[in-house]
Amino acid sequence: MKTNIFLISFLIVGLTAKSQQTITKTFVHNSVTRSYIIYIPAIYNGIKPVPLVFNFHGYTMSASQQMTLCDFRPVADTAGFILVHPQGTLFNGNTHWNVGGWTNGSTADDIGFTNAMIDTIASHYNINLSKVYSTGFSNGGFFSFELACQLGNRIAAIGSVSGSMTPETYNNCNPKRPVPIIQIHGTTDNTILYNGMSYSKPIATTLAYWVNYNQTNINPIITSLPNLNTTDGSTVELYAYLNGNRCSSVKHYKVLGGGHEWPGSWGNMDINSSAEIWRFLRQYDLNGCTPVGINEPPIFSNISVSPNPSKDFIKLIYTVANVGVYDVIIYNSLGQRVISKHVSQNQIGTTTEIINLTELKSGMYFLQLTGMGSTIAVKIFKSE
Fold first, then answer.
1. Distance (Å, rounded) from C-alpha 279 to C-alpha 265?
2. Distance (Å, whole) CA 193 – CA 280
3. Which of 66, 182, 245, 376 fits a disulfide with 159 by CB distance 3.0 to 4.6 angstroms?
């Protein structure tokens, strides 16, 4: 057993190891100079092939904004994959990904650009080419579906947050193999309507396409997730369509009352989109299930907090199943991070953290353990 003692910090956010690298790279594709930001986690050593994850930005956004606002870096730090934030080109004055719909008329070869990025990155880093994944926000989520349709021979699985399929993507979809899909979407999204619009298929239609193509169970397993943050105005239901060809699946996190958001960063705070997406993606490679396995036990378990409520210190005890780096985070009822620390776990087993609450105001908080592709959270209370 080990014990870590740490004090409150309102400023320790996104701590990173010294050897992590964030590099902007460019190359010419189809006579157009294209760019991307690549993030190399500290634990990458070039010896073992690692997964590659693309994180595509939304319409009008940039690669750097996606990297910051829809942050996958803490997950990459613990899981060890290389993370790429591509930059879209301008169309009618706005950055975009060419998916049809509102981008009809664009000449951007974004499929070719992505294909070229895979080859370019693999020529410089030790990439496991059977474990290349795509995710994205809004337009980036749409483009992840486009990649599943048109580049399924290279993209093992995809995740979409607040995105869907345009009619053009839907009508021209030509997957090369069953592609596992994870979709996160709010029911009150006023930008990409949950029930569809002229340039966006309803979420139910998009899910039905992949349920049918992957030949999963038609009837999903529906789970109501814990309402960890009662002030965010939303709750989450998980729809799991399982047992598809090559052990593929389709999962949908339906954010009831959620808007155009990346849950865990803004909007709903009951789930961490980045962690949930990686937990899903990592189960698959181009051939089907990876050794991680769908039934892998959780990283964190047997969590307990005492005393709860407490006016000064609490003792957090939990079991961790993997070695690695993870985060202990406390959020207030508004979803703001008030305590945060990286913890390096070098042994499997029971761990204890002593947490100082003396500078917090009385009330309810959410304590979260996150990292290594897993997240667990509990409510705690600070007394007078």
1. 17
2. 24
3. 182
Strands 284-285 and 288-289: antiparallel
Joined tokens for residue 235 = 């709750």
pLDDT per residue as tens digits for the range 212-258: 999 999 999 999 988 888 899 999 999 999 999 999 999 999 999 99
Phi, psi of 141 (to 5 degrees): -70, -40
Amino acid (one-letter) located at 136:
G
Q: Which position has the higher pLDDT, 191 or 301?
A: 191
Q: How far is CA 64 from CA 22, 38, 70, 85, 213, in A?
A: 10, 10, 10, 7, 34
Give dist(CA 36, CA 54) in Å, integer.
10
Checking if the pLDDT of 98 tops 50, the result is yes
In the Cβ-directed half-sphere of 12, how many Cα atoms lie within 13 Å? 15
Segment 345-356 mean pLDDT: 80
Cβ neighbors of 165 (< 8 A, separation 6 or more) are 142, 145, 146, 173, 200, 201, 205, 206, 209
CA angle centred on 53, ends 50 and 54, rounded to 5°: 150
pLDDT computed for residue 344 by the predictor: 67
Beta bridge partners of 353: 4, 316
Which residues, other chains included, contact 366 with Cβ-Cβ below 8 Å and sequence gap of 6+?
228, 229, 269, 330, 331, 333, 377, 378, 379, 380
Question: Where residue 10 falls among pLDDT bands split at 50, 70, 90?
Answer: very low
Q: At what angle do helices 139-150 and 110-124 cross, to 10 degrees?
A: 80
CB–CB of 14/370 below 8 Å?
Answer: no
CB neighbour class for 362 (10 Å; exposed up to 12, middle 13-18, buried from 19): exposed
Please calculate the CA angle 274-8-10 and round it to the nearest 5 degrees: 60
